TrEMBL record:
InterPro entries: Aldolase_TIM (IPR013785), Cyt_B5-like_heme/steroid-bd (IPR001199), Cyt_B5-like_heme/steroid_sf (IPR036400), Cyt_B5_heme-BS (IPR018506), FMN-dep_DH (IPR000262), FMN_HAD (IPR037396), FMN_hydac_DH_AS (IPR008259), L-MDH/L-LDH_FMN-bd (IPR037458). Residues 108-465 form the FMN hydroxy acid dehydrogenase domain. Residues 83-104 are annotated as: Disordered. Pfam families: Cyt-b5 (PF00173), FMN_dh (PF01070). Residues 93-104 have a biased composition (Basic and acidic residues). Belongs to the cytochrome b5 family. Keywords: Heme, Iron, Metal-binding, Oxidoreductase. This is Uncharacterized protein. It comes from the Eukaryota. One of its GO terms (molecular function) is oxidoreductase activity.
Length: 476
């Protein structure tokens, strides 16, 4: 039962007694919250809240929840009020702590990073294993996330020589937004697992370099914080997971329009959470597991790895477009297009195809964006004229970006690359952008082009893609 007088200062002793399924309170930033009625609605499951029952959960709560989460999702009667003294925290396991430096070992430094893969190699030495696993995880055996990378490599260039190359221009537009480079920051949740300030640092670095930032509606920072972090004239776009409570999503979209966001995408490849086993193993927690007896073990009955609320899965092409067009005339992408047939449907419905398999985190065995680009070119090349095709997945290099552009992509996104760079804060993201821009420039010069609009399919040979796809490399 919620306490009757929310103004009353709660005592530490009182809070400590509410640690069961029947009455579960947690303390966040010195205020107590009654979670009892929210336990079964929590997207991450009840176990994790019960673990913090009667305890201070601030350290576990803050990295994964926007600052307005409690205000938005927990009824005000369950906001119990301030607690008079410190409440004990739960001792975190080693998987939740940043690794200690062993004698003789050096922590990776930003100065030593020379490519995007270096950020990935540095991240597990700086991040708690759970956080790294969340970023790195792909679905099931992770061959799709690996295949995303391999498929860019399977494409070869056809460089042209003896062309005068003086200045190189990397600027372009993506959905009408001026961008200094043809790559952008993909929407991704979990930024605060990389850095306490989270996605606001991504947006600051993006502003500094004229890079488009596409912000996730399940980012660790709230919509308000992301808007506040926006520089004057900066282009930000908003990614939508249509949540099962559509009214919440509608409110966000309307707010994003008001706040001057420049475009939207609906992510459609995640109506269920992919089975990310790397992540699941990290989440296995003996304390949580002990809360249930063997008979009560309900794992695999519900979504096992979901970290967000349930998704509205009843849209079809017509109802989605009708719905979004009641709220905005801005450019809209459908993120998660994996076949030429669906790319064509995007064209027919006046939206843009975003070729993505969610970084291999959703359907194991899904095609890479490189493959989908090739099949659109073969079956319905008119899509490239009528729409702006966006691509992401497995991009590590400026040359990967150029290959996608040669095949018709207008903008190329990176998810993990920027999350790993965020481990070094804003300077890390700045460096990632500079590295990619440098690689794009060098690649363009060596290909024999001086501006992005000169890139076309004659600069690539995609024959190797079909052979390479026959031999995927699984990692788990
Ligand atoms: C940790 C993580 C969180 C992500 N969160 C979202 C998200 O909230 N919304 C979304 O549309 N895509 C999300 N994605 C997918 C990315 O937008 C993008 O499609 C993918 O990361 C591209 O592949 P890459 O990581 O190999 O670059 C996420 C990806 C990662 C790795």
């Amino acid at each position: 039962m919620p306490v009757s007088n929310p103004e009353k200062m709660l005592t530490r002793e009182e809070v400590l007694t509410h640690s069961s399924r029947e009455s579960c309170w947690v303390v966040i930033n010195n205020a107590a919250y009654d979670m009892t009625h929210f336990l079964d609605s929590h997207p991450g499951g009840p176990g994790i809240i019960l673990k913090y029952g009667g305890r201070d959960a601030t350290a576990a709560f803050e990295p994964i929840h926007p600052s307005d989460t409690l205000e938005n999702h927990l009824k005000s009667e369950y906001h119990l009020g301030p607690v008079s003294g410190p409440v004990p925290e739960v001792e975190e396991d080693a998987k939740s702590k940043a690794p200690e430096v062993t004698p003789g070992e050096k922590k990776p430094t930003l100065g030593a990073i020379i490519n995007i893969r270096d950020f990935e190699l540095a991240a597990p030495k700086l991040l708690p294993p759970k956080s790294f696993a969340y970023f790195k995880a792909g679905a099931e055996s992770e061959y799709t996330s690996q295949w995303n990378r391999d498929s860019w490599q399977a494409i070869r260039f056809r460089p042209r020589v003896l062309r005068p190359i003086e200045e190189i221009y990397t600027s372009t537009t993506i959905l009408g937004n001026e961008c200094s480079v043809p790559f952008f920051i993909c929407p991704a949740g979990g930024g605060k697992l990389a850095h306490p300030k989270g996605e606001v640092l991504l947006t600051k670095a993006a502003a500094k370099h004229g890079v488009l930032h596409w912000i996730s509606n399940v980012a660790g920072c709230s919509q308000k914080e992301m808007t506040a972090a926006k520089a004057l004239g900066q282009n930000q776009c908003w990614q939508i997971y249509a949540m099962s409570d559509l009214a919440v999503t509608e409110k966000e979209i309307k707010q994003a329009v008001k706040d001057g966001f420049k475009g939207f995408c609906l992510t459609v490849d995640a109506i269920r959470a992919g089975k990310r086993e790397r992540d699941m193993r990290m989440e296995l927690d003996e304390d949580e597991a002990a809360i249930y007896s063997e008979e009560e073990d309900e794992s695999f009955e519900k979504e096992p790895t979901v970290k967000r609320g349930a998704i509205w899965s009843s849209f079809d092409w017509v109802s989605f477009v009708k719905w979004i067009r009641t709220m905005t005339d801005l450019p809209v992408c459908v993120k998660g297009i994996q076949t030429w047939e669906d790319a064509k449907l995007c064209m027919e419905h006046g939206v843009h195809p975003w070729l993505s398999n969610h970084g291999g985190r959703q359907l194991e065995g899904a095609p890479s964006a490189a493959e989908t680009l090739v099949s659109i070119r073969k079956h319905c090349p008119e899509v490239f004229d009528k729409c702006e095709v966006i691509a992401d997945g497995g991009v590590l290099r400026g040359t990967d970006i150029l290959k996608a552009l040669c095949l018709g992509a207008k903008g190329v996104g990176l998810g993990r690359g920027f999350l790993y760079s965020l481990v070094f804060g804003e300077p890390g993201v700045n460096k990632a952008i500079r590295i990619l821009k440098h690689e794009v420039e060098v690649g363009m010069a060596l290909l024999g082009v001086t501006s992005i609009d000169q890139l076309n399919p004659s600069y690539v040979d995609t024959r190797g893609l079909a052979f390479a796809s026959a031999f995927p490399r699984a990692h788990l």
